[in-house]
Amino acid sequence: MTSHPHPTTKQMIDQFSGEPNYSDPNPDDAVALSRDRIPVRSLTQEDFDAVVRIDRHDSGQDRSAYYRRKFEEALGGSGVRVSVVAEQDGAVVGFLMARVDFGEFGRAAAAAVIDTVGVDPAMKGRHIGKALVSQLLANLTTLRVESVRSEVEWNQFGLLHFLERCGFRPGQQLALSRPLN
């Protein structure tokens, strides 16, 4: 890979926009453009209604209270903000909510956790989910996060297949659960 002595157009725009853009750490604008066909940006409070709408279509339930808590955590918490949304024609068409943990269960390692993802049903099959994961991975690489993980119900075959296509594999950890009743 060659290094450019002068900043790229994208880097100059990012410098003056006020918010860092980690959409593609590659300094080659042609590579960045081919990778960023679907606009993906950081989650904001204004995205709440769109996220709830997309989730309602997918789950068949109104989970507004759950998303209020998730938005508070993602936008108001002291953690690193890595949640993203995808847009088409100015409308939110997908979202991915994640967080960065700097150690748990006795291990000190930066790891990200994807806990919620959704794509507008009308946009399925258009690589929205792949763009969301790609953007997240670029952001996490820039932040020097070492790994990313998620949990999926065993019978969510579509989501399992999607994550496999994105490079996820079964981890070395076994999640244990016990009902309290």
TrEMBL record:
The keyword Ribosomal protein does not apply. The keyword Acyltransferase applies. Residues 38-181 form the N-acetyltransferase domain. Keywords: Acyltransferase, Transferase. InterPro entries: Acyl_CoA_acyltransferase, Bact_Acetyltransf, GNAT_dom. Residues 1-24 have a biased composition (Polar residues). One of its GO terms (molecular function) is acyltransferase activity, transferring groups other than amino-acyl groups. Residues 1-29 are annotated as: Disordered. This is Putative acetyltransferase. It comes from Thauera aromatica K172.
